Amino acid sequence: MKGFMSEKEHAERIHMIRQALPACQPQEGSPANSFTPTELEQLRLMLNLGPRDTGGTQLMVAEKEQKMDILNPKEWLGPKKTGEASSLKTKKINIACPQEACFEQPQEEKQQLSTTISDRQHSISPSWYGAPVIKDNTTTQLFRKQVRQGIFQNPTNGQCPGFMQCNLVVLPQGPIAFDFLLFCQRNKKACPLIEVCDVGSPHPIGVARGADLRTDVPKYAIYKNGALYKEVNDATEYWPENSVAFLIGCSFSYDGAFQDAGIPLRSAEKGRNVPMYRTNLPCRSSGSLKGNMVVSMKPISAIDIAKEVEITSKFPHAHGSPVCVGNPKAIGIVDINNPEWGDTIEIGVEEVPVFHACGVTPQSVLMDSKVPFAITHSPGYMFITDLPSDYVI
Length: 393
Description:
Elements: H1 7-20, H2 37-46, E1 57-62, H3 73-76, H4 82-86, E2 90-95, H5 107-122, H6 139-148, E3 163-172, H7 175-186, E4 193-196, E5 220-224, E6 227-232, E7 243-249, H8 255-260, H9 266-269, E8 276-282, E9 292-301, H10 305-312, E10 324-325, E11 351-357, H11 361-368, E12 373-377, E13 383-388
Antiparallel strand pairs: 1-2, 3-7, 3-12, 3-13, 4-7, 5-6, 5-12, 8-9, 9-11, 10-11
């Protein structure tokens, strides 16, 4: 592109730019090839382009031919002759420094592009090394469609046996989201992490094809400043643009294994939610997040206790083996007939209460820590994935 000027003019132009912007390098900590507002203004003045208006400099860029010589200011202004411009379709682009969001697309175009990319990505099977094989039109996909359409709005215990169920936590990107990720790593019994979505994405492409976490959970809980604000069946309205969605393993995942072993699921049989309780078992804190473990309870026949422990120990990604068998007071539960979440379940004469770590622990911790905003599943209303319940994460 040096044909527009002599070698001498070309060298002088480079020297002029370097004089305006010493070394022509970004400041320390800035992205490569970026200018601060002051540097950009100096460059424009040195090249006789005049001061930049507040809306950004509008340049005519030819869509047919995108190449131009950045050292030739004449090309920055576009073709001067009408005849030269007549054969080219041009458009205006606002030029500003990165700190002022250069080449910012209109919001509606950004949303359309994001939706197009998102829809394309989350509807295909994962293809990275070691990715799970997710088949199309599975029982779980049909179930999520019923949830999305508002046909199923009940607790999910006993639903889709043999498939992994997950608790949901959604936080805005930032320090609290990082603290929560670290909290899950430090408290794997209560918060076995299954999937973390990309920032802004409601699509858990690693565990469920075609799923949308904004609509595919039967009931959501919205929290503001550490308090329950509202429960809804569709979280789209409340979903933050910079969301980070976490999926955490759930003990409902081994309901199918219990059924195969002949262990009754009392809550599911009676059409009730499982009872859940706060305990005196402290979790390891992480940054601003701290609190105690929450447990769920299943009444198990005394003769089946060994079998129950054997089965659940094979599901570490779903809270694994019990944290307590028998005496609820040992973990700080004063009244077993008064759970903080879920429904009361009667314990038979020959049955023993068995307590497992529960994915409602994050909700309890978020409340205790007064987190400004969060979306979670409502206790007992899980997201059902396409993965087999015994899939090794």
